[in-house]
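Protocol step 4 of 6: structure prediction from sequence.
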Amino acid sequence: TWTAAAALLLLAAAPLRASGLRTPFGEVVVRHLKIGQTYSMYKLVNLPLRVVNTGTDTVYLTIEPVRVSTGEARHGYEPVPSLDWVKVETSSFTVAPNREAATDLIISIPNDPSLLGRRFEADIWSHTQSMRGSVAVGLQSRLLMQIDSTPPNEEEPKKK
């Protein structure tokens, strides 16, 4: 119909803006996590989650943990039982072109002996919202957590 053709013509005439994101936090493995402990990725391994806006426009960026299905989890890992295990310190940003957003990830392992020696995956979904002719983009990072097979001893300080 004429309406559909006009809509396609308007869409084709609208300038598309370059959009993109980049992160060095593609797949990160954290080993020897103790049950009942809380960890800062920044303090533990000096690795905050950084996301660079490689596009030509300022973007609104959201960063959030997501639970993967059993079939999508990395071989040898289970989906994280609860998203309460991973918190994003700051989850919303306005990021100018060629600038980055950085935030800490906080990992909290429940004090549950059934977790000893197990491996879990939580993914981190960093994505923009579409605005002014730009296309929304996103990228997914893997956080692979390996729980130590021994419980923490009494003298071990709680990590933060």
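Step 5 (inspection) to follow. The longest strand covers residues 119-128.
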